[in-house]
Amino acid sequence: MQKVNVEEELVHLIKLQALDSRLYGLRRERQSKPKLIQDLEVRRNEEQAAVKALEEKIKASQVKRKQRELDLSTKEDSIKKFQAQLYQLKTNKEYQTMQHEIEGQKADNSRIEDEILVLMQEAEDLNKEMAKEKELFADAEKHLNEDKKKIEAEMALLDGEISTLEAQRNEITVLVDKKILTHYEKVLAGKDGVALSPVKGKSCQGCFMNLPPQVINEIKMKDKIVTCDSCARILYIENEEDA
Ligand SMILES: [Zn+2]
Q1: Per-residue model confidence (pLDDT) at position 243
Q2: Cα–Cα dist 20/237, whole Å
Q3: Cα–Cα distance between 123 and 69 in angstroms, integer?
Q4: Nearest CA among 189, 200, 184 for reference residue 237
């Protein structure tokens, strides 16, 4: 088995970790972007739906009002008819019955007129509401159009930075011993982008567990790659005085 130069491997791994830390940060940022666009789309769609719902409400109110206006004119016609008939009636009783009928119809009409007034007020309120809702919709649409472009530009920029770092990363990984790299990659993926841990004050800075003197000695000997028993990260001493 070919012996690895631990000191050299660690130099590569430290460079690799620096790149990976930046890559993890950039990828996290990149991943958060589509959700921002999605949120803008959701807001736009909600405002659009609110405008539509209000349109339906206005339409229903108009239909109701037209119906009431029709009822009113039908009843007015029938009152006129009754009033014309009034003079042709023979008996006082017939006259009174007809008179009573006319009064009833007039009372109905007065109620319908009140309803129409209420519906007119309602239409006015709904139109005001609609003007506000349309403003909200326009604002949501404007945000979607403008911010989406901005976010997409940011995503493209991040994609570019990520590819650059990935290319730099590939230049280093080919230099690292295969077995060590495999371990590194595994811990990197499992520990959210941190596979390497410096030792400070006799503890692993990845998990803050105290390291036995034996382990510290092994790291100092640079005879093999030493990993933390508790978090599996590859240990190295950044500053001899700190360890
Ligand atoms: Zn640890």
Answers
A1: 66
A2: 19
A3: 15
A4: 200
Query: Ligand 1 centroid vs 243 CA: distance in angstroms?
Result: 14
Indicate the CATH number of 27-175 among 3.40.50.12160, 1.10.287.1700, 1.10.3470.10, 3.30.2000.30: 1.10.287.1700
Could you tell me which residues come within 8 angstroms of residue 115 by beta carbon, excluding any fewer than 6 positions away? 68
Ordered by start, the domain boundaries in the chain are 27-175, 180-236
The CA 160 to ligand 1 mean position distance, Å, reads 33
Find the 17 Cα to ligand 1 centroid distance in Å: 15
> What is the per-residue pLDDT across 112-136, written as a single tens digit (0 to 9) for each?
999 999 999 999 999 999 999 999 9
User: pLDDT tens-digit profile of 137-172?
Assistant: 999 999 999 999 999 999 999 999 999 999 999 999
Distance between Cα 184 and ligand 1 center (Å): 13
pLDDT per residue as tens digits for the range 66-105 = 999 999 999 999 999 999 998 888 899 999 999 999 999 9
The structure tokens listed for 224 are: 């093999």
Question: Ligand 1 centre from 66 Cα, in Å?
Answer: 78
